[in-house]
Amino acid sequence: MENNQLIKFDVDIAETCKVKLLNILPDVPTVVTKLDFEENPCNIENQKFIAELRTNCSDKQSAINWKEKFEELSYTSYNVDSTFNENTLKTIFKCIFHCLHNTRPPKRVKTPHYKHVDCPAKLTINVKNPKMKK
After folding, report:
1. Is 102 within 8 Å of 119 (Cβ atoms)?
2. Helix/strand/coil (H, E, C) string of the chain?
3. What is the pTM of this model?
């Protein structure tokens, strides 16, 4: 796997978990800085977990390309949930995405769309301005 040289882990996790994450992360220099599991840390399929990643995406287009590659590798699809102002003092690009299988029907709808399975998956992309003070 060439992915092994590009993706580093700053957190301590089992080797089986690392392999599963390596299979869904795009081939760009990435550091996994946070990984929290709700249940068994070795079973990331069909389980809720939160990962914080740092990549070398420095503009909107590279972040969108990373998202598309992630969707392809993880067999998921995301729609825009909310957007934020672009090219501000702190942020170049920020967007929150939700899973395609969470159609977010209004409460009054008795039978939501058949694709709605209330998937909790979310993806937040935040490209920070490199000139920003830390």
Report:
1. yes
2. CCHHHHEEECCCCCHHHHHHHHHHCCCCCEEEEEEEECCCCCCCCCCCEEEEEEECCCCHHHHHHHHHHHHHHHCCCEEEEEECCCCCCCEEEEEEEEECCCCCCCCCCCCCCCCCCCCCCEEEEEEECCCCCC
3. 0.77
Q: 119: which 2 tokens?
A: 């998937």
Q: Quick one: pLDDT at residue 64?
A: 93
Q: Which residues pair with 128 in a beta bridge?
A: 91
Q: How many residues belong to the chain?
A: 134
Tokens 């937040």 found at: 124
pLDDT digits (tens, 9 = 90+) for 65-80: 999 999 898 888 888 9
